[in-house]
TrEMBL record:
NCBIfam families given in the database record: GntG_guanitoxin, PRK10534.1
Keyword presence, tRNA processing: no
Name under which the protein is recorded: Low-specificity L-threonine aldolase
Similarity section: Belongs to the threonine aldolase family.
A GO biological process held by the record: glycine biosynthetic process
Length: 334
């Protein structure tokens, strides 16, 4: 029985074409700036997203950390969602390593931060307060796509108050594909953007931070400091380039499969939250763990916390979705 792993879109295996690209990659020592494939990836994504420069790093956590630290000094503050990855799921790195105070705010039902609340949280210039420097948004935010009009309004607000605007765009391309727009329509509003290559795009490792030459210069120094300077990293960058060239449009299949899954589960009587991109959330309460164990015996892996989370990706087919629905149907008859 083959395993269907819906825990995350990080579990994808490199495709044959990707492995071939990795095998053929020209490499050099990237700490010396001499890896042609890393340089190509950084420039390619920066151009594609409308920034001067890019920086290849091992993880999205490092990419966000370097972005925050490049924007903020010790004793500065960034405004961020209570459920945002940079705040909640990155070990408090901005505070621990950057001495940057987070000011978390509740995330609205649509994944945005209420801009009136953001404005109210910006500290006046007074020595009692940390200096508010940056607003960090996330898109997609737990699979929700932030509206383009909202991004424009957030940009306007940050201009008004002299704040920088950072995007945790781990799943930027899920948002762009869902909206049917060029990713630049999203990234044009930001001073820096972090993009994960290792989520739905299907690369084994890597993220890219994009921004101005000055910002990326700072981030490059910080990358070395936190141990993220890699040597013949072109082997990995080749996978990222391949993903950007061949595995962006197909994200629409993941979205279609997530919609198919949600529909099937609703027909069985399950409560399923509205699906926008590649994640299906089910508020299950007490039953979550029992259901997780039940489907695990049938070769289906899901994440269970307060909600069950099922994530579609490169290695999940429409036929797999049918098998998942059948297992969930069997659970209802236990
Ligand atoms: C996965 C993820 C990250 C960080 O990625 P890692 O590569 O696992 O460190 C950042 N932000 C969001 C929204 C993510 O989903």
């Amino acid at each position: 029985m083959s395993v269907i792993d819906l825990r995350s879109d990080t579990v994808t295996q490199p495709t044959a074409g990707m492995r071939e690209a990795m095998l053929r990659a020209e490499v050099g020592d990237d700490v010396y700036g001499e890896d042609p494939t890393v340089n190509h990836l950084e420039q390619h994504l920066a151009n594609r997203l409308g920034f001067a420069e890019g920086l290849f790093v091992p993880s999205g956590t490092m990419s966000n950390l370097l972005g925050l630290m490049a924007h903020c000094e010790r004793g500065d503050e960034y405004i961020v969602g209570q459920e945002a990855h940079t705040y909640k799921y990155e070990g408090g790195g901005a505070a621990v390593l950057g001495s940057i105070q987070p000011q978390p705010l509740a995330v609205e039902a649509d994944g945005t931060l209420d801009l009136a609340r953001v404005a109210a949280a910006i500290k006046p210039d007074d020595f009692h307060f940390a200096r508010t420097r940056l607003l960090a948004l996330e898109n997609t935010m737990q699979s929700k796509v932030l509206p383009l009009t909202y991004l424009a309004a957030a940009r306007q607000l940050t201009h008004e108050y002299g704040l920088a605007l950072h995007l945790d765009g781990a799943r930027l391309y899920n948002a762009a594909v869902k909206l049917g727009v060029d990713a630049r329509e999203i990234t044009q509003h930001f001073d820096s953007v972090s993009v994960c290559l290792s989520k739905g795009l299907g690369a084994p490792i890597g993220s890219v931070l994009c921004g101005s030459a000055e910002l990326i210069g700072k981030a490059r120094r910080l990358r070395k400091m936190v141990g993220g300077g890699m040597r013949q990293a072109g082997i990995l960058a080749a996978a990222g380039l391949y993903a950007l060239q061949h595995q962006v449009e197909r994200l629409a299949e993941d979205h279609a499969n997530a919609a198919l899954l949600a529909e099937g589960l609703r027909e069985l009587g399950y409560t399923v939250e509205p699906v926008q991109t590649n994640m299906v959330y089910m508020p299950m309460g007490q039953q979550a763990r029992a259901l997780q164990a039940f489907v695990a015996e049938r070769g289906i892996k899901v994440s269970a916390a307060a909600r069950l989370r099922l994530v579609t990706h490169l290695d999940v087919s429409a036929a797999d979705i049918q098998r998942v629905i059948e297992s969930f149907a069997a659970f209802r008859h236990v």
